[in-house]
Each structure stands twice: as C-alpha cells, then as structure tokens.
Specification:
It is built from 34 helices and 34 strands. It is α/β, with parallel strands linked by helices and 1015 residues long. The strands form 9 sheets. Strands 9-8-7-6-4-2-1-10 form an 8-stranded parallel sheet. 51% of the residues are buried.
Length: 1015
C-alpha cells in the first residue's frame, strides 16, 4: 500500500501551496458507470490537476484564453509539432507555420545542440499567441537528444538501485534541467515491463522485468519530475515490454489474456494512475483482447484509449499519442483525427500538419467529432499550461545555460546513481569480502588494458597482486600457458571492459581455476552470456555496468568490504541470473575464508550441516547459529531452521539468542578479569571484604577464587521467585513429582507446578508503577526491594562442603563484586570496557531496549511463572527476578559477536589492534585449573578423566576453555589449534525440560567434526 501514496507524499510536500487541501478519494467525482477493476480501488485525480482545481486564478486564466480562441486555434492546441533545433531559413519557416499559422499547442525538438534548442524555444514563444508547451524526449536525461549534456544511466541500470529516494532525486534534477531549458513536459518515464530479452526497442529503456519494481521506480521518478513542475508522461501504454517488433518500423502485437495484461503490462500504469501522475503516452501496439479490429494500433483504438485508460482505469490527466510518424501507425488515414476520436488529448509529431488539422476541423463540422470534446481537451491542456508556469511566456536565459545544466551537484548525483546500481550477483561460500591478509592474487583483464587503471590503483591499497592481460584470439598454446600461470594464485579477479567477447570465448571455455574466481563486469549484463560457462562457475560476480573511474574505485572497496553494494538485478541474464538476484555486501559483512588455506577440509566441515539439520528434524531445537573460526578467520558461519516453527522467521546471522549461562564467561567473567587487571582485588581476597551483607555470616570467608572455581560450598541455585509468591494464594504445594488437577504445568522430568498462584501484595504489578520497576516480562514488573530479599536469602542459605559444585549463586555474587568495584551496573561496565569498543552492536542485556522483538529468538513458553512466551526477556528465573541483568545469565547476542569475544581471549586480550585485557590476566584465567574438578577460573574445560561427563568432543585437547548455556548454547576456544567454536540455539523452546540437544550430543558432534576436518 505504501507505493500508492509515495507520489502523493513527495509531490504534496515539495509542490503544493501551504494550506492546500490534500486530495482524497472522496474529493474525486466518480462516474456513475465506473467499475473499479481488480487492483484499482477508485480513481485518483492527478495531483497537478488537483492543484489547478484549487486555484481560482487558474480557472480565470483558462477561461480568458479559451474565450479568445477560434475553433481552429482550439484544434491547434491539441497538436505537438516536431522540429529540428537548427536556424536554417527553411526550418524557421516551418516553425512560423506551426506556431503562427496553425497555432499548435506544443513543440518537440528532435535533437542537436542545447544552445540551438534554447534559441528556437525563445523564438517560438515570442511567435505564439498562447504560450507553447515545450516537450522533450529525455528518458535518460537531456543527453538522449542533446549533445554535451549530463549523461545519466539507462533505466535498466537504475532498476538495480534499491533506494528509490535516489530515483526521486533523479526525477527532481531532470525537472530542474528541463526548466532551465524552457521545457515543461518530459516524455518519461518508460513504464514498460521488459520481460522479453529480445525486445529490439525497449530493452534498457525499461526499469526491468518485475512489474512491482518497475512501478516503484516509475512512481519515484515521476514524483520527482512533477515536484519540480515538469509534467511526467508514462509510456508506452498499455505496455511495450514483451514484444520482438519495433513500433518505429512495424506494428507489434500483444497476444495476451486480460489477466496477463493486468498482472504484467498494465500493472505499472495502474499504480502510476493510483499515485496521481499527470501524463500517459499511448503506444502503437495491437492488443486483440482489448481491440478486436485487426491491425488497429492501440493509439487509434477507442477501446484502448477511452474504454480502458480513461473509463476503466479512470485516468484524468493528459493523454499523448506516441509519435504518429512511426510506421506502426503512420499508414492509417487521417491519423490525428483517429487518435483524437480514440480519446487522446494531444497528438505527437504528425507528418502533414495542415492536412491533419483540416481533417479534424472537417470532422467537427460534420458532427463526426463533437466540438464539446475539442473544448474539453483544449481546456485541459490550458489548465496544465497554467499549472506548469505558462500563464506568462517563459524565456530561456541563454548566457551560462550549459554551466547551469551541468553542475557539480548534477555530476555528483550521476556518480551516486552509478554507485548505487553496482550489484553483487552471487557470492558462493561467502568469498566476498576479501581479507587484506590475502596473498597471491591475480587480476586478469579482458579488454582495453588501460581502462581498469583506477581499479588497479584502488586494489593496491589493500593487497599486492599480479596483473595479466588476455589478448584477443590468443593461440591455444599461449592460452594454456596463461591458465597454468593463473593456477598458481589463491584468488583470481577477472575484470571485463569489452562488450564483444567472442574473441575470448576459446580461453574461457577451458578456464576453470581451482582457486575462487571473481568476475567484475564493467559492461551491460547481457555481455556475460558470451562466456556463460565460465561465469556460471565463478564464486562471485559483480555487475558494475560501466567502467567509470569512481565505479571502479567503489568496486575495489566493495571487494574488500569497505563499501556497501546492495543492488538487485533488474532483468534476468539468460539462465545465469534471474531478476532480483543480488547479495548485499557492507563493511559489516563478515569475512569468510577457504578452509583448505587454513588446514581444514571443506568437505568434512560441510558435514556440520547434516548434524545441525538432524537436530532440527528430531526437535532438539527450532534453529541455530554455528560459527567456526581458525586463526581469527571464519571458516564456517551458517544458520539453520526457524525461530519457533517452519512458519516463523528463518534464523539469520543477526538474530539474537539468549545465551543463558554462556553469559557467565561472555559477560560477568570479562568484568571480573578487567577489574583484576586493574589491580582492584586478589583472587585470595574474601568476597565479604567488598560485599558487606556477607559479613558475620557463614559466607564471610569465601574467596573470589573459590567462587570462580565453583568450590565455595554454595548451592547450585536458589528458587528466589518463591519469596515473591503469596503462599496462601494456592492450594497444596507449589511443586509435585507427578501431574494432578492442581499441578498441570510440567517443569522437569519429574517436576510439575501449580500455576494458580498470586504474588505478594505490593511485590508485583502488571505495569510499571511505584516501586515495581524491575521488568520480568511483558506484563510483570517486580518491586525493586526484591533485590534485598535475594541478598537476604543468599546470606542465610547453609553452605555445603567445598567440593566442586556448579553454582549460579557464586556468579551472582561475582556480579555484585564487579558492580561494587566498578561503581557501575554490570551491563554498563561491559558496554563501556568491551562491547562498544569491540563494535559489538548486537550484544546486550535487556535487548528489547535496543531491538525489535522480531530480531530476538524466543527462548521458551513459560506456562508456570510468567505465563507468556519469553522473547527478549531472559529465560533464567534468577536473572529475570533481578530485572534481567545477572551474573549468571541475561546476556543476548549472536554467534558472530560471541565469536569476537572469544577470539579476543584467544589473542591474549587483544582484538583488531586494541588491547582489552593483559596477556598475563588472560593466561591466568584461561589456563589455571582446579585440582579437584575440570573447572578453570570461571571457564569450563574438557573432562579428561571422565570423558562421558565432558562438555566437549573427545578430540578436544585439555587446553580448551569456554562454557555452555541452558538454552542450548556453547562457546569453546582451543588455543593449541587457534580455534573458536560457537553454537547458539533455543533448545528450550517451547519446553525447557526437554533436552534432546544433550541426549543427541549435537554440540559435541559438531566440535568433533571440526577436529576431523583438521586431520
């Protein structure tokens, strides 16, 4: 729906007088017999015409001019005469005849020099009694007809652009240039949907082959043009895109059903009408399903022009014929008369002006053409003349005209359009962007060797390379030598600047390098079909369209991920690429690398796919993200499955997962290590030295080291939320080992809960109010005093022996320690010291503060405590009842960003040239190990004594460190082999008590596959 009103919004804001009433459907009269066809809900008056209807001065001017006109002058207003912009004696006489004698309504100059057209425009306006509509055929700018004017990209190139604001800006700039040249009407944009690659006349003049995309571009361009007070004319109605005949030479036929016409050819025109555009041009086409008379062009068919365009589609703007000198229509007698009878308002470029005007006058006199129709058309034309600024004769200022048209701003717009159209058509295996560390790169140029110098210069800023030139018709022996030379390189970039590739086909027929090949085409897309086999085997193909210097420089930056390319192919390229093809590359696109170049086998790594998919098939989790890095390079980075079920969102690399206990080492432990690094405490310090509420309790002598090793004697966890529940609000016990009428919600293999309870009065609220400021979920807010209740419960809980016992409580105390020493909440401290400087944009506690819900993967359906689906709220109850930020859980992130954290640790505290932790601190925390368990200082490790209890793969060396999370997450670092492995899932969805992930050992199997790939 937003497309329909794009034009309205842009034109109203830029063009309407302040305070003018915006037209609505109810403002527009609808004929009694009008029936809206499918896709058109009601007619919308063209916005320029609506503006005129609100202007009393406009009506007065139209009436005053109209009343002074004879019938012949009124008829003359319906004609647009084509004339060459030259000042020969004969041409000037033709101009006087057309303007002074026949009183034509407008002129169309056929082409030439800008100064000549401007001079003749002024001369013509001086001759005219009624100001002339000066029209122009500028589909790709003034350069389509005038030499020495700015050259804009063709529409097929512009169709690749995703930001339609640029297309609007282009239309606006074209309006400015037209006004400078004294032009009020531009016969653009082309609204034809070019789905026939053999179309001999439309082709690159079209925005593409997708009707919706074409409609978007048409409306954006037209809105820009008309916001600058130049009439836009959509052409060639009812659609010239799927023809193999040029209507300049013969009459094309559209042999399609009405359903097909509605969904393809007519679609952009209907959308443009609904958007309020002001002009339509009817093409010379035979449309049997609309006009049964064989050989009758649509431009002369009343069924097409009046029946379809005016009545059915309710178009109220100006209707122009295509040029009537074209062979698709010129063989008809009294062609202008037939065109006006068909319903056109203005006839374009008739060959015999006097004869055609006389024929119209004779038809009016005979009653064959009602004079009322002439009057209505004339008044409509005069109305548009007024609103386009012709109430007074405009004259072009000749001095400085060229510099006013070709401005620096214009050149910058052309540059931005060309850059925005660059399209990365494919990117197999994520070969792009290239990493600056890459060595042994070859560039093979096809075409003029000097044309790609800007590309070569820019590439040299990133990497050294060897340049090769493919010469035309190279002997086979030399071709093979060149292939053999290129085989020694790890990447081959093929740059193509030559459109005719036949002389190179024999080389590419046998060119299939083992190293990834990247093709860059500085030519139209269709040229790649000449070497289709080689292109189909390329890892990446970049369509740059043209070899402009700034385009070449941008392509080089895109190849290395330093610039953005988000183009999408506007029209199919044979069987190589379909319309809409394209991959977005940005500075945030992660690098991918060839595993073999880092000692791993791609074929073995690919087995991870089947392991991940098997887990989804068996219901172990709905979806997951998996990342494998070697020596800091991402060798495997894939997503599988959906957020919840197959009908939900597919998992994307940017989706956030609840890390659960992986938060301990990705969050809390980082803060502890940083504070240790700063000398804020010693590991042997008592926690009570910093947390006064533990003094004079049985926790008084607990050390920080004991908390990190899980050897403090603290219990594994405490059911804190029970302290908030009113024990009198439910019958019987809160939990039971079996299901009954009261205990209906399953919480574990042998645990059922009674969900019919209430919270203590004043402890909870459905909305944020008073002291209830800790948000637990969408409709549950907890009293901030509950934090004190948690501290009390921790202080009072009995201690057990100091053997190994994994404890969330210990890490909650470590959070309190970090906050006490840093003077900041845990989330703020981590953001300041780690996440922000590391560029982690999708790592956060309380993620709903920063992200939309749809970007966060649901972790569970909590039918017992929170009675809602948990999406963006931490699953862990202890963390939830602290408001979502806790030492044991609460962090949300992506596999890629978790991978950055652990790569920093693997690097000894450094990432991308910045140090976050000292090498000594990293070494201490990642290598120190308990004497009585597998645990390290905060980190988990493989169990080399009892492999059945190890959280890691059998092949993982003892040096590995990391952690797992209850929601189905893990991150492991292998310093011996330079590996980082991250697995994120929501195995707790919908039910947390189901744990097929562990039973199937999915995480461990994937890790084992990584080690197998290294053998």
């Amino acid at each position: 729906m937003k497309r329909r009103y794009l034009f309205v919004g842009l034109v109203v804001s830029a063009f309407f007088v302040v305070g003018a009433k915006t037209p609505t459907l109810k403002d527009t009269p609808i004929g009694e017999n009008f029936h809206a066809p499918p896709g058109v809900s009601a007619p919308i008056e063209p916005l320029l015409l609506y503006q005129a209807s609100q202007d009393e001065k406009c009506r007065h001017w139209v009436d005053s001019v109209y009343k002074r006109m004879s019938l012949k002058e009124k008829v003359g207003q319906l004609f647009i005469y084509t004339i060459a912009p030259v000042q020969t004696k004969r041409n000037m006489q033709l101009l006087r005849d057309a303007v002074h004698t026949y009183k034509v309504g407008g002129l169309l100059f056929s082409g030439g020099k800008i100064q000549n057209q401007a001079t003749l425009t002024n001369e013509a306006q001086r001759m005219a009694r009624c100001p002339l509509l000066i029209t122009f055929d500028g589909e790709w700018g003034l350069s389509m007809r005038l030499r020495g004017t700015p050259v804009f990209p063709r529409n097929m190139v512009l169709g690749c652009i995703q930001d339609n604001r640029l297309i609007y800006e282009y239309g606006r700039e074209m309006a400015r240039q037209c006004r400078e040249l004294g032009v009020q009407v531009n016969f653009a944009p082309v609204a034809d949907v070019n789905i026939n690659p053999d179309n001999p006349v439309i082709n690159t003049r079209s925005f593409g082959e997708d009707p919706m995309q074409v409609a978007d571009k048409v409306i954006a361009y037209a809105s820009g043009l008309e916001s600058g007070k130049v009439l836009s004319v959509c052409k060639h109605f009812p659609g010239h895109g799927d023809t193999d005949v040029d209507s300049h030479k013969a009459l094309p036929v559209l042999p399609f059903t009405r359903e097909r016409l509605d969904s393809v050819e007519l679609y952009p025109f209907k959308e443009a009408i609904r958007a309020g555009v002001s002009g339509m041009m009817v093409g010379h086409l035979q449309v049997p399903v609309i006009e049964p008379i064989g050989g009758l062009p649509s431009s002369l068919s009343r069924n097409v022009v009046y029946g379809l365009l005016t009545e059915e589609l309710a178009f109220k703007g100006l209707i122009f014929t295509d040029a009537l000198a074209m062979k698709g229509v010129s063989g008809n007698q009294s062609v202008c008369l037939q065109a006006l009878k068909a319903g056109n308002d203005m006839v374009l470029a008739p060959r015999r002006l006097k004869e055609e005007i006389d024929a119209v006058l004779a038809a009016v006199e005979k009653g064959e053409l009602p004079e009322e129709e002439i009057d209505a058309k004339c008044r409509k034309i005069l109305t548009y003349k007024y609103i386009l600024g012709l109430k007074d004769k405009p004259f072009v200022r000749l001095s400085g005209l060229g510099s006013r048209i070709n401005t620096p701003q214009t050149r910058d717009l052309i540059r931005r359009l060309n850059l925005a159209a660059i399209t990365v058509l494919n990117n197999k295996g994520g070969v792009l962007p290239l990493h600056p560390d890459l060595k042994e790169v070859a560039i093979l140029n096809v075409g003029d060797g000097g044309k790609t110098e800007p590309f070569d210069r820019e590439i040299k800023k990133y990497i050294p390379f060897t340049r090769f030139q493919l010469r035309k018709d190279l002997p086979e022996v030399e071709q093979q030598k060149l292939r053999d030379s290129l085989a020694a390189y790890r990447r081959v970039i093929v740059t193509v600047t030559e459109q005719r590739l036949a002389p190179y086909q024999s080389f590419f027929a046998r060119f299939a390098p083992e190293a990834p090949a990247i093709y860059v085409f500085y030519t139209p897309a269709k040229s790649m079909l000449q070497i289709q086999r080689a292109v189909s085997g390329a890892e990446a193909v970049v369509l740059a369209h043209a070899p402009h210097d700034d385009v070449q420089e941008r392509v080089a930056d895109i190849l290395f991920g330093k610039a953005t390319a988000d183009g999408r192919l506007s029209a199919s390229v044979g069987g190589l690429f379909s319309a809409g093809s394209g991959v977005t590359i940005t500075p945030h696109t992660p690098f991918h690398f060839v595993p073999e170049e880092y000692g791993l086998k791609s074929e073995v790594l690919s087995r991870i796919d089947s392991i991940a998919l098997e887990g989804i098939k068996e219901g172990a989790y709905p979806g997951c993200q998996i990342l494998v890095m070697k020596d800091g390079k991402a060798l495997y980075d894939r997503c599988f499955g959906h957020h919840t079920d197959k009908h939900s969102e597919k998992v994307k690399p940017t989706d956030l997962y609840d890390l659960a206990s992986l938060s301990k080492t990705t969050g809390t432990l980082l803060a502890v290590m940083k504070l240790y690094d700063k000398g804020c405490f010693n590991l042997t310090d008592k926690v009570s030295d910093y947390l006064p509420f533990l003094r004079k309790t049985n926790k008084e002598n607990l050390t920080i080291r004991e908390l990190l090793l899980h050897q403090s004697g603290l219990p594994s966890g405490l059911v804190f939320y029970q302290e908030a529940i009113d024990k009198k609000s439910y019958k019987g016990s809160l939990f039971k080992q079996s299901k009954d009428a009261l205990h209906t919600v399953r919480l574990g293999a042998r645990t059922w809960g009674n969900p019919r309870f209430r919270f203590n009065k004043g402890m909870a609220a459905e909305t944020k109010s008073g002291d209830c400021i800790l948000q637990v979920c969408d409709s549950l807010w907890l009293n901030q005093s509950f934090r004190e209740e948690m501290q009390r419960k921790i202080a009072e809980v009995p201690l057990k022996d100091k053997n190994y016992r994994y404890s969330d409580i210990g890490f909650i105390l470590l959070q309190m320690l970090a906050e006490e020493l840093s003077g900041k909440p845990l989330d703020e401290y981590l953001w300041q010291e780690f996440y922000k400087p590391m560029g982690l944009e999708r790592t956060a506690y309380l993620p709903l503060r920063y992200f939309e819900k749809k970007e966060i993967v649901p972790s569970a359906v909590d039918r017992f405590l929170r009675k809602t689906t948990l999406q963006g709220f931490v699953h862990d109850e202890s963390a939830a009842f602290q408001g979502g930020i806790s030492g044991n859980a609460g962090l949300f992130s992506t596999a890629r960003e978790v991978g950055k954290v652990y790569q920093m640790l693997l690097n000894g505290g450094e990432l991308d040239g910045r140090r976050y932790l000292s090498k000594e601190t990293c070494a201490l925390f990642t290598t120190d190990k308990s004497k009585i368990s597998r645990r390290g200082l905060g980190f988990d490790k493989p169990d080399v004594v009892n492999e059945s209890k190890s959280p890691c793969a059998v092949s993982a060396p003892a040096s590995v460190y990391g952690h797992t999370g209850f929601t189905g997450t893990c991150a492991w670092v292998d310093p011996d082999n330079g590996l980082v492995y991250v697995f994120l899932s929501n195995r707790t969805y919908p039910d947390a008590w189901v744990n097929k992930l562990s039973k199937m050992a999915i995480r461990e199997k994937i890790q084992e596959t990584i080690y197998e790939a290294m053998k």
